[in-house]
Specification:
The chain has five helices and no strands. It is an all-alpha fold. It has one domain. Helix 4 packs across helix 5. The two termini are 40 Å apart.
């Protein structure tokens, strides 16, 4: 992260107002954009959603929880949570 001098960025009126509250402190200004949910940038969210949908479909086709756990390298408890969610 690169630090910038507030006097180079902010108008004088705004700089004086901010100095009333935080003179000498380091401030962080977050971007003015909505934050994405976990896994949206990398595609992991979609991958796990598709995997979980496949697990539910296979369970409806009478494939056992034990077999699904082995096939997807998950614990039986995790498969149960996916199925009954």
């Amino acid at each position: 992260m690169r630090y910038r001098n507030a006097s180079d960025v902010l108008p004088d009126v705004l700089l004086r107002e901010v100095q009333k509250y935080a003179a000498g402190d380091t401030l962080y200004f977050p971007k003015d954009t909505a934050r994405k949910k976990w896994g949206e940038n990398s595609g992991a969210r979609n991958y796990f959603q598709q995997r979980n949908d496949e697990i539910r479909q296979k369970y409806l086709q009478k494939i056992s929880i034990e077999r699904l756990a082995d096939e997807y390298c998950l614990s039986e408890e995790t498969v149960r949570k996916i199925i009954f969610k």
